[in-house]
Amino acid sequence: MKNVAKLLVPALLATAFGTSCAADWGNTKWDPGSQAPIGAHANLPKAFLGATTVMVGAGDIAFESTGAEATAKLLDTIPGTVFALGDNAYQTGSPAEFAKFYEPTWGRHKARTRPAVGNHEYRTPGAAGYYNYFGAAAGDRTKGYYAYDVSPDWHVVVINSATTGDDASKNLGPTSEQYRWLEQDLDAHKQQNVVSMWHHPRFSSGVHGDNVDTDAIWRLLDAKGVDIALWGHDHHYERFYPIDGLGQRNDTNGIQSFVVGTGGRSHYAFIKPAKSMTAVRNAKTFGVLKLTLAKEGYEWEFVPEAGESFVDSGRAPVR
User: Fold this and answer.
1) What is the pLDDT of residues 57-82, one digit of tens each?
2) Phi first, then psi: what are they for 98, rounded to 5°?
3) Domain 3-317, what architecture?
4) pTM of the full predicted structure?
5) In the chain, what are the domain boundaries?
């Protein structure tokens, strides 16, 4: 996000890390339920300069199955801010479902959670169960989008994508209130790195696939130099190589994006081939994505539920 930093980061990385490589696009242990990673990875050091901040979470979380408890146990061992990427309590996000399924599991970490709203939450009118449960942490209940600083160096924007059809253009298009708010917010935080998150993935090789309703938002995020995008909705894990506003792989100036619909609800088997910009995907493992954020770069790590072997990790400089 930072103008000067865009020029300095490659040099800082080379000086501090003793390497000319700017990014490590992932180290992955994969199994038959995974799409193997594509391409080589750089040999970067294990730490960035200065202080770090941790964010951890997933989407598509709590129902009658044991998956939410399995991923909640991972949160029990990982500090930092928890993100919940929507469809947090099934099937309708009702107060009763939040109390029965979410509260005993991920609710253990409610005090440090900043959520995004999903389509299932709106099966309860006005997503009242969601907003009543999370309160001020979910932002203005009449909007469903908000922003906050997770550290002095990192800003987070949470977008409400849980609209479709005509409502999508009204709520996500260039003339929408949400779009104008996002543009103003990003302009006000130009000197910070930015994580963006919402429920419906702009890109996905899963069952639901690409969400074109969020295209205007996506292009804006790219134009403003946002670093990371996090999504749920499709019940799998998928990491992409950096993608630009045109939807093309762009390793030098794209947004690092993840589908993390692995919170515990269920798995969606892949019925479509991986995309050309897919780095790795897995449709059989519940888990959480851990982000370690530093001023000049970040690391990611997919942490699987106990007993599973799929992992994915890497690091990259900020844009």
Assistant:
1) 999 999 998 999 999 999 999 999 99
2) -60, -40
3) 4-Layer Sandwich (3.60)
4) 0.89
5) 3-317
